[in-house]
Amino acid sequence: MDVAGGPVAAARSRTIPAMDQRTFDTRELLITTVLLVGLSRLVEPPLIWLVAVLVLFVVAVAALQLLARVDPAGETAGVPIESLLVPAAAAVAVAGAIRLIPVGLWLLPALAAGGLLLGRTLRTEAEILASPMSGASWARQSVMGGILFVAFVGFLGVAATVPGGLPDPTGALFASSGIRLRNLALLAGADAVIAALLAYRAAALRGTNLREVAWSALTAGVAVAIAAAGLRAMALPRLLGPALLVIVFYLWDSIHAAVRSDRRDVRRIWEAILLVVAALVVIAWSFSAAAS
């Protein structure tokens, strides 16, 4: 039984102020990010991409400082880079998706929702860092839910930012793409970056082998890029394309998670061949759709 002034009380006195300070700092980060995202609504492409890079950098640096203070005793060796990826991707995703909201009063609840999403990702990463002995399954379930939601917002935001990224809502299903090839390439590339960042975080939950994590992130990015180009060339309804990209991302990550370590070298060869063939098919299809 603990007495006043004992070890537990002393630890509690050290922990509570640190938690309060982190909460205050997190609010500052959320307010700064929300202001940047709100101002970005007034910027048009290509300047919006510079704002997205700025938001990514600001959130990553601020998240590094916040998460470094999760352990009040300073016992952690450092913040792993994968802990920064989901919050940074969430901020960029909100900056893109906010362009779907007309300038006006509706921006306020949309920005508030974006702030809540960023705050939730930060809290999830802080909880994982503060509980290093928690089960891997708990960590994966907690992070994967946020990853999939951020992926959907991110893919939707990219489509809203790239000119022609969203099909005409009045158009017919499987109509002509209505997007220039350079914009289609930009759409696929931006989706690939988001997918790679999130896939790196997901793969880092399964192991610490840098080669395996990097390969999973790279192939996930390529797979999503190919799917993004193909789905946009099909001119699917607006929300269906980003939703299907999330499914592609989830299935690809699930397949990687299920592969045994002794079969991964052979698996990489077949994955590379499959991605190259799929890329060639989508590129040929996109050129033919653009020419028609």
Description:
The protein is an all-alpha fold. The protein has 2 domains: 7-133, no CATH class; 135-292, no CATH class. The protein contains 9 helices and no strands. The protein has helices at residues 7-40, 47-67, 82-97, 107-130, 136-161, 181-204, 210-233, 240-258, 264-291. Helix 5 (136-161) packs antiparallel against helix 8 (240-258). The radius of gyration is 21 Å and the shape is flat. It starts with 6 loop residues before the first helix and ends with a helix.
* DSSP E strands, number: 0
Number of H- or I-type helical stretches: 9
Reported for the largest beta sheet, the result is: none
Based on secondary structure, the structural category is: mainly alpha
Instruction: Write down the Rg.
Output: 21 Å
Please, how many domains? 2
Query: What overall geometry do the principal axes of the alpha carbons give?
Result: flat
Distance between the termini: 79 Å
Portion in beta strands: under 5%
Determine the fraction of residues in helical runs and give it as a percent range: over 70%
N-to-C SSE series?
HHHHHHHHH
Mean pLDDT rating: 79
Task: Show unreliable segments.
Answer: 1-22, 72-76
